[in-house]
Amino acid sequence: MSEESTVVTHPFLDLAPLGAAQFASIEDRVARLLRTEQDVVIMQGEALLPLEGAIRSTAGPGTTALNVITGPYGQTFGDWLRDCGATVIDLAVPFHTAVTAAQIAAAFEEHPAIDFVSLVHAEAATGNTNPVAEIGEVVRRQGALFYLDAVASVGAEPVLPDAWGVDLCVIGAQKAMGGPAGVSAVSVSERAWARMAANPKAPRRSYLSLLDWKERWIDGGRKALLHAPAQLEMLALEACVERIEADGLDAVMGRHRAAAAATRAGARALGGGLEPYVHEDREAAPAATTLRAPSGVAASELVTRALSCDPALPLAAGGGALAKEMIRVNHYGVDATLGAVRASLAALGAALREKGIAADVESALRAAEDAWR
Amino acid sequence: MSEESTVVTHPFLDLAPLGAAQFASIEDRVARLLRTEQDVVIMQGEALLPLEGAIRSTAGPGTTALNVITGPYGQTFGDWLRDCGATVIDLAVPFHTAVTAAQIAAAFEEHPAIDFVSLVHAEAATGNTNPVAEIGEVVRRQGALFYLDAVASVGAEPVLPDAWGVDLCVIGAQKAMGGPAGVSAVSVSERAWARMAANPKAPRRSYLSLLDWKERWIDGGRKALLHAPAQLEMLALEACVERIEADGLDAVMGRHRAAAAATRAGARALGGGLEPYVHEDREAAPAATTLRAPSGVAASELVTRALSCDPALPLAAGGGALAKEMIRVNHYGVDATLGAVRASLAALGAALREKGIAADVESALRAAEDAWR
Amino acid sequence: MSEESTVVTHPFLDLAPLGAAQFASIEDRVARLLRTEQDVVIMQGEALLPLEGAIRSTAGPGTTALNVITGPYGQTFGDWLRDCGATVIDLAVPFHTAVTAAQIAAAFEEHPAIDFVSLVHAEAATGNTNPVAEIGEVVRRQGALFYLDAVASVGAEPVLPDAWGVDLCVIGAQKAMGGPAGVSAVSVSERAWARMAANPKAPRRSYLSLLDWKERWIDGGRKALLHAPAQLEMLALEACVERIEADGLDAVMGRHRAAAAATRAGARALGGGLEPYVHEDREAAPAATTLRAPSGVAASELVTRALSCDPALPLAAGGGALAKEMIRVNHYGVDATLGAVRASLAALGAALREKGIAADVESALRAAEDAWR
Amino acid sequence: MSEESTVVTHPFLDLAPLGAAQFASIEDRVARLLRTEQDVVIMQGEALLPLEGAIRSTAGPGTTALNVITGPYGQTFGDWLRDCGATVIDLAVPFHTAVTAAQIAAAFEEHPAIDFVSLVHAEAATGNTNPVAEIGEVVRRQGALFYLDAVASVGAEPVLPDAWGVDLCVIGAQKAMGGPAGVSAVSVSERAWARMAANPKAPRRSYLSLLDWKERWIDGGRKALLHAPAQLEMLALEACVERIEADGLDAVMGRHRAAAAATRAGARALGGGLEPYVHEDREAAPAATTLRAPSGVAASELVTRALSCDPALPLAAGGGALAKEMIRVNHYGVDATLGAVRASLAALGAALREKGIAADVESALRAAEDAWR
């Protein structure tokens, strides 16, 4: 073999294309993770792709959508829905709380025409999580289509489309699953497929189209892919599901739940005015905890100080206007550890003290440790 | 380190996210490969994503588009253009030939309203390549926007958006570049950006949107990505451009040109009724050669026979109706070798003989070898 | 997460160390591939490491070794054996043939003191393969320890240490298994362990030591590794065994056997003086075929010509003095295809013709195709 | 391309072999990292391979070796030296300190025959680092050969074979470099090569041999490798050196130095009887800090408790007899962060309290933060 002929050798090049059979088997593996009998379509892009594709496929001028806003993604979904011509009823709840099934029921009562509900399960950006099981019961009773963004919940807390009556459940692997961001998945119920088929404006022959996958991939027996897949990301998705299976989904979710409990308990004990942004524990997302900065101190400044000695900490300020008041602790994936929580609390305590605010790191850590167990 | 804590170790997991700086540097590297000063946007999906996004961003009811059809992709572009409300003038040329600059000029003469031209540079599916430099001169003279699909040409033959006046030049790495299929790129001229900005129906806040990348990524100084990128595919794209740089782009293109010349010469010498589908050498794509099956023999059957003993050969039957008459030899990427050409010719010769058709493999190989040099 | 903090992101960095449990499971998988109940030790180096380690561990001044030389590795083994102080009886057979069980039996008769037999199963460098099953019967009857180098046979033909009575069976993944070269394995019988334990000069506390692995790894229940493993190579070994399991070992071996048969038949039909170096088909290795260059033509020159237009062909001249007369066709791993055989035969035919020697490529290919089936 | 033909696709399989040119360029890159003009040989195994190979190549019955023991590796080197027939003078210093240049000078005075000095630069297992620059001056003045194990120092503190007069400097990438463990390197001075060439017992034609690499690789102009390399590990080594170059070696070393300072200051402030095992700061290794457990408490028990809630923490008990009294904080590679130090101190504080021992975590963290800056 002439050694001179290959100048650059790289394991990411010259791979055999990912075959349809392996692609289908990865879809099946994701379906098992979601305990669903629905069709699971893996789309070749970030989770925004199936999120947008699912709305554009199902919503149209005849749609009356109840759009629940518990964070920035809900606002995006409303934009898409209006763009499709749907009548949109926004149900915005303060970011420090979750929506309740009762609020959903009340909205149905007020707007009987609602035939579509869009909801973000958990929002990493605001740190809340919504009671999807209870909401699903209401939505199903009303016969509306139920669309769920589970990107920030899958792997951190139960995501059960079938048990909950979710018709369009979108996931990505980049948060609690500890996997790639470049491919994502959506489970689609029979009802959702029917709604799309009846929607003349549903994208077809488009990168956004779910129906293309239905008609050319699923209905064809999953023999021929629509286009060459993002093969490395697909292999990474397979690997991360394999790891979750090996660890046990319950153990993985348990680590996230413990990290959230520890962060919240620690922040409360730290004092200095820092407190959980989401008031109720049961409304707090297991994947990421948001904290409210003490009044008079910019959250972004605290975060900058905390990261200055340790840029790898999973801390960020809130986005946009929230940068003033919200600190995010992203204890998901590899950071779903007590160590990441401890280091984050200690760094926040030090940042508070630099601003002249007393902070009881000792108590914070003890509280975090107690809560972790 | 507790060894029991990690059940599944995999190099594709738990990577640090790809930062904005590295993302931007990969864009710059692609721009250098295309010798362009235009903005290069890397989109997080297969090449269909920027292909569709570029059309939906620029075309609208006020657009008069000349859509050149030299293969299946041209037909898809026409669908998208019509979908956008554009007036579409289809200029279809037989798949065994290329379009000429004169044909383009004549179309402009006949339809002076044309302000958009869409063209596929080379089509792997039909094996032709079009004279983009000459066509570009005509299009520029007319002031129309020039949209080019260079997915099957980049790496195999020159692709020079600036020199040729291409306003939207889309590439993917999965063919002659020997790279990943999951991310792709488009270079965008100032004129194209202006057209999009003036287009009220250009996708915004959408996975299909180019303007989102312009406004939130480029205009912001490429500091913050719109969403987490497909990081493994991005690294693979970087690696494949690095390899092309190390080998030399001219050398890489030379291998593809030689492979095409050898395949065509070989097929002619093989006899038995097999002949190049594209008549003129200069209209034949360097990345893939199409052959016409002898009359009375289905191309798909010949391919099936040829692959039966060697499923790794880069052979395929034409798509759809072409399956009857067209054989594709995909001598791109790792298959841009004389060995792949020889093995393909020998396999086709054997398949012909199995059908009772004489084939002169000896002459075919000699002709291929002569043409390769 | 500060994006500026990570300048270089690479999937090969910052991996969690490979744990003992996964290491052990890879050993078990290799054992299943070899259908052996013996201990399998994976050593962290190229196959030369266990090859050398096994000899230095078992041989000493009291050893009388029958060293069978059917290629260059046999010569190396003799050097090691002498270096250990063993009495070495070299049994060299011409490289164009294999050793026979009768020759082994005769050697035992002549030298009843023989208590160790070293043999290369198949030699890629000379292209022969030896009848290990029959030889094993003789060796076992005589009670000698049986050491086998199966690096160039595993994956291409059956390797069955238990059925054949092999005491030390060394494999590497870099040939027919299509895997990595950086780690390798040896299966060790109880008798071999006992021999080592009784050998005062067996390496201990040494990178060459097998006893270290026995005493500190195996006897300790495989809980703690001796040192951090070559983790990427281990994962690659796991992947290649997984692929063989998925394809089926029989299918993988079948491809290699077919490639050898096709190459030999093709070379014979090619004429021009080229002929199989190993006379008897049953003595020819499935992993690689050696050919004798026509008299008056240097093999190395033919190979250079053949590679000039196609450096990726799996061709090489023989090593050392054999460079004059021997051509090697390495149709193993990804090159165990009819396409690689066809391309190699065509390239050799063209090279012969350039030297003014008639070669019937047409017949060569037909013969190869017939033999492949 | 038949999709059914590939059952398992994996980026680690079917790679083109790593060529000699790329191998040589990786050696050159390692040489630049060490600022050395000496030959750098990359050996295909864990660092134990060049460590052992270098001793067996240079030491023999005529050697008088001063073997400095500051941890377990020094003991291993003494075993190898004796095994080679060398006269060994062991200079053992307590693990809580470093050896001094004066002690080395005194040893030379007492034993003028010393012509070889073996030293571990820094020992992760005991946490000390030795003043190699000063010692090098003494050794050079005496004309002895200087052998240095820099595996646990390279990347964490300066390693300068040329400036310090080191003749055999062995490194591995698995600690502060954050790279692979499966390949390693040794720089060899001209004097060292000469010593080996004159040593009749230096390994030759052996996996342990350095002379094989000298004679067959370096002297041949680095054209042909001795055997197929561990290609994935080589690529990982290249990637980790590239990352260090991008970050800046000084910055990488700075992080390790800061982590050590913070850990030591934090442990002192924690109280409860925990204290740095190595008394003097300047004798403490930047890569890893060892701590002495309070009397009456087993270090291994504290570590087990600390890891129980957070198995990913970089904590370990000392090896062997040290398990009772020594705790290791391995703040190297990805763990060279303030966050890892904070989490480790907090975990140790919690473990102490569980044993009923007061620990001032608050003060520990403050001290660590002050020391980090």
Automatic annotation (TrEMBL), chains A, B, C, D:
Its cofactor is pyridoxal 5'-phosphate. GO terms for molecular function: alanine-glyoxylate transaminase activity; L-serine-pyruvate transaminase activity. It holds the Pfam family Aminotran_5. InterPro entries: Aminotrans_V_dom (IPR000192), PyrdxlP-dep_Trfase (IPR015424), PyrdxlP-dep_Trfase_major (IPR015421), PyrdxlP-dep_Trfase_small (IPR015422), SP_NH2Trfase/AEP_transaminase (IPR024169). The keyword Transferase applies. The modification N6-(pyridoxal phosphate)lysine is found at K175. Keywords: Aminotransferase, Pyridoxal phosphate, Transferase. Substrate binds at R328. Residues 82-346 form the Aminotransferase class V domain. Belongs to the class-V pyridoxal-phosphate-dependent aminotransferase family. This is Aspartate aminotransferase. It comes from Streptomyces sviceus (strain ATCC 29083 / DSM 924 / JCM 4929 / NBRC 13980 / NCIMB 11184 / NRRL 5439 / UC 5370).
